[in-house]
């Protein structure tokens, strides 16, 4: 089932498990568990997202800030931005122009 964060809307503390979230507005403090997906659309912003076995897709002109990957996936399409991503465990794939990953000690 998909939920949508509309332009100008802000949501906080959503847990995605076997759900899809389409972000056109702002999503803060989201947890993406196995089976969950977050799609950050054009001009959408996701901040402080924890990815545990799910997927975060950052599309053109979408932005993710301060994401933490724990056995999750972050896919950045051309023109998307992922700023201050922390990699604990998990896969990190990108196709964007500018990435600023931050590795945690022991990762």
Walk me through this protein's architecture.
This protein has 107 residues and is mostly beta strands. It has one domain (2-103). It is 0% helix and 58% strand. The protein has no helices and 14 strands. The chain has strands at 2-5, 10-12, 15-16, 20-23, 26-28, 31-32, 37-40, 45-47, 50-51, 55-58, 63-65, 68-76, 81-94, 99-103. Strands 1, 2, 3, 4, 5, 6, 7, 8, 9, 10, 11, 12, 13 and 14 form a 14-stranded parallel β-sheet that branches. The chain is globular and about 35 Å long. The relative contact order is 0.16. The model has no long low-confidence stretch (mean pLDDT 89).
What layout of secondary structure does this protein have?
Layout: E1 2-5, E2 10-12, E3 15-16, E4 20-23, E5 26-28, E6 31-32, E7 37-40, E8 45-47, E9 50-51, E10 55-58, E11 63-65, E12 68-76, E13 81-94, E14 99-103
Parallel strand pairs: 1-4, 2-5, 3-6, 4-7, 5-8, 6-9, 7-10, 8-11, 9-12, 10-12, 11-13, 12-13, 13-14
Provide a concise account of the structure shown:
This is Outer membrane autotransporter. With 107 residues, the chain is mainly β.
Give the tally of β-strands: 14
Terminal residue distance: 33 Å
- The share of residues in extended strands comes to over 45%
Mean pLDDT: 89
Low-confidence stretches: none
Q: Helix-strand pattern, N to C?
A: EEEEEEEEEEEEEE
Percent range for helical residues? under 10%
Number of domains: 1
What spatial form do the alpha-carbon principal axes imply? Answer: globular
What structural class do the secondary elements suggest? mainly beta
Main β sheet profile: 14 strands, parallel
Compute the number of helices: 0
Query: What radius of gyration results from the CA coordinates?
Result: 12 Å
